[in-house]
Amino acid sequence: MPDSRLDSASGQTAQPRRVLRGDLLDFTADPGFALPAESPGVRWRPDHVLLIEGERIAAIQPATESLPLEWADVPVTDHRGQLIMPGFIDTHVHCPQLDVIASYGAELLDWLNTYTFPAERRYIDPAVAHEGAERFLHALWAHGTTSAVVFPTVHKVSAEALFDQAKAHHMRLITGKVLMDRHAPEGLLDDVDQAEKDCVDLIDRFHGQDRLAFAVTVRFAPTSTPEQLTMAGRLCQAYAGTYMQTHVAENRDEVKWVASLFPTARSYLDVYDREGLIGPRAVLAHGIWLDANDRAVLKAHGAQIAHSPSSNLFLGSGLFNWLEAEREGVHVSLASDVGGGTSLSMLRNIADAYKIQALQGVRLSAWKALYTCTLGAASHLGLADEIGRLEPGCMADVVVWNVAHGPVPEHRDRIAQQNLARVLHANLHERVFAWVTMGDERNLVSTYVAGQCVHHAQSVAQATVQ
Ligand code: GUN
Ligand code: ZN
Predict the structure, then answer these.
(1) How far does the centroid of ligand 1 lie from the alpha carbon of residue 247, in Å?
(2) Which of 2, 125, 206, 322 could form a disulfide with 163 if both were Cys (CB 3.0 to 4.6 A apart)?
(3) If you measure from the C-alpha of residue 69 to the centroid of ligand 1, how many angstroms do you get, rounded to a whole number?
(4) Ligand 1 centroid to 386 CA: how many Å?
(5) What are the pLDDT digits (tens) for 220-262?
(6) What is the spatial distance between Cα 416 and Cα 447, in angstroms, rounded to a whole number?
């Protein structure tokens, strides 16, 4: 329980304090595609304590050192043997698509028409939007994700609902009303003028409030008229602190369709670039079918691709060439893209990312993958001072994990631990890699957002020592 007391010196109510004890894992730099044993930037602090004061991490120290005097009576939550990590950052996920996750048998364009658009129409109802937003944020936390870049629907209320829910929990959330004024069914279309007014109103009311940020949210090029794309570019230029999120070059039929809709554009990415939509705060999902020119544009702007492995496999979209993007200087983050993706678990998405790279002859280490879901995403979003690291001053968005859950992972972990006792650095990766490959939300112990416990696994008994 957090400890909230009157500070006798200042006469003010002291910030609640809590102490978590366990094995701390985070990153100080990009491990890249180096061999696991030679990867830079891996910060492993076994049996340490994390001191949380109010919303932030106050200090970190070895558990064997005595706590500062003023912390002496704060109970220590004992997670010895468990991993304590920064919460994951999902850079591309659709709130309303929890209703259609795991829908059978279609590629992107059919999938949108058959499943996704009908589900999104329901979000015109404020009650559906608010219930959906609440369910969605709780689901993120239950999967170990504490920050996200989110697509709601075309309805303004769907963005308001997400902002309201995130604000109530001091969660870092980036979203914005979806823009789409063509090629979608009735009930899912806006128009340029009203959409611009709605966006400006949402920016005024939510952008920069608490931990919220607005994203100009172009669904994808086919569902916006050229006039709407121009308006979206105008918003990005007028409100420089906002983000931009969209989809690009996900599916081959989609790419052909965009070429026919925008015959004067050099490429799919160029449809966005020539409207001023690509900047350092642009988050573009997929980018499987980009060319070297496009990658040079992304690099020049510092924009990022939200690689969505489970979605790319499930919708049969293609194999993203991460190494090529990396070599050509493109920022890459990882995303669930639920409901095209089949799990909100970033662990499951990491496991899929590994297989996508393996099919192309590339080995993705657990270090690179975990870095990408934490400090990597935070850096590309310009938020590394706030999230993605276990560092004093950062927000206490923290997740506690069991490295193994169930008889086979537990057996595998015992073997890895025996190896670990022999050669530490080479074999820590063996243990962590088995966790990310077999793990999912069942491994999760507890999730903290801004210092508050927002999810705690029912089945895990928690002990307090001291
Ligand atoms: N492209 C346009 N809309 C969507 C969507 O909702 N999901 C995915 N995966 N791709 C899209
Ligand atoms: Zn998507």
Answers:
(1) 7
(2) 206
(3) 53
(4) 29
(5) 999 999 999 999 999 999 998 999 999 999 999 999 999 999 9
(6) 26
| Ligand 1 atom nearest to 337, measured from its CA | 9
Q: Which residues line ligand 1 (CB under 6 A)?
A: 94, 108, 112, 116, 219-220, 247, 250, 311, 337, 340
Residues of the chain with pLDDT under 70: 1-13, 421-426, 459-466
DSSP sequence for 84-145: EEEPEEEEEEEGGGGGTTT--S--HHHHIIIIIHHHHHGGGSHHHHHHHHHHHHHHHHHTTE
CA 105 – CA 442 distance, rounded (Å) = 27
Q: What is the spatial distance between Cα 356 and Cα 295, in angstroms, rounded to a whole number?
A: 19
Among the bound ligands, name the one nearest to the CA of residue 120: 1
Phi, psi of 68 (to 5 degrees): -55, 150
From ligand 2's centre to the CA of 285, what distance in Å?
Answer: 6
Cβ-contact 25, 44 below 8 angstroms: yes
Ligand nearest to the CA of 92: 2
Name the residue of 97, 220, 261 to mutate for ligand 1: max ligand atoms within 8 A of Cβ: 220
Q: Map out the domains of the chain with their CATH numbers.
A: 17-87+394-456 (2.30.40.10), 88-344 (3.20.20.140)
pLDDT (0 to 100) of residue 463: 38
What does the pLDDT read at residue 423?
A: 62
The reported pTM is 0.96
